[in-house]
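Researcher: Next sequence.
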Amino acid sequence: MKILQTPPRFYPYIGGVETYVYYLSRELAKRGHLVNITCADEPIGGSEEIDGIKVKRLKYACKIANTNITLGLPKALFNQDTDIIHTHLPCPWNADISAIISRLRKKPLFLTYHNDITATGANKLLAETYNFTFLKFLLNQARKIFVSTQNYLEYSVYLRPFLKKCIVAPLGVDLEKFKPLNLTKDNNGNNIFFLAKLDKFHRYKGLEYLLSSLKKIINRVPLKLYLGGEGDLMRYYKDCVRKLGLDSAVIFLGQLNQEESLRYYNLCDIFVFPSVSPSQEGFGLVALEAMACKKPVIITDIIGVALDVKREHAGIVVKPKNTEELSEAIKYLLLNTNEIKIMGENALKLVREKYSWQRHADIVEKEYLEAIE
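Model: Next structure:
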């Protein structure tokens, strides 16, 4: 089967959508399918093959709200020999062009709906206009719409008219790459790790609330917060740290590659991911990666794995924006090392049993095959 994926960017670019497309495509390629990626050249490159996936990178003219505008995309997609077109939101340019080409060439279109398109400031009107115009065409054109959790079907008002098309397909984690390591810590423990892009498009990851929570307990519990990621809000977050008096407790690591992320997952005692927006947070893959490294997680109840974390005692689930609840959860775990051990073991067991890219690919592949038959 010939499969065309149209993400905005692709590996080695690191982002939620890009990570998803890489692992799904790699799994489908392993099964003998011909997988092609057409995306923007960020990072700069041409045509290449990565882990059995053929990648064609197109020059982009500009970026609008974190979306690369590749003017050569319509022609590139129209000329592709493919059985299936699989596109992604929130990446409207790629998704809409894919929908148009799907209609013109009579090829089945599949959509992974990672999260709603939202915006603030100057881009808010643009996002709202899109959601009530082009988005409807895209959702109508899609044969099936994949979402990562059942909860998201309740959060998204845009998906409600299309529930019969929606398929819940939990995401996975690469257990060969993300795993427990026997590393020696540089201090006596109480290490917290947070990983996200530190830009205006990912402010919903909740770092401000994490910093405010640490302020409440820093004088009672010695700790170190390691922040992975970079972006245009880096200076803003550094100012927050300074104003809260957390300079000695917070370490900015900058952008981390996969090997560096693995190291800090293993060096931390707990991973905290307090995302605050149910319409923007698609799943929270980093929580799975931390759990695969045998670490308990403190997450908000909008994260895709939250119900399982709570049910399997693999961490602590708190309400979004509730700094009191978040600070108490952090303090509790840091003062109870035995709970950290128990929850870490439960976390690893949970991802091994339920969250794999093989299982996700099974669901997607089944829908592909039904479409072309």
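Model: The first helix runs from residue 16 to 30. Residues 2-172+356-372 form a domain with the Rossmann fold fold (CATH 3.40.50.2000).
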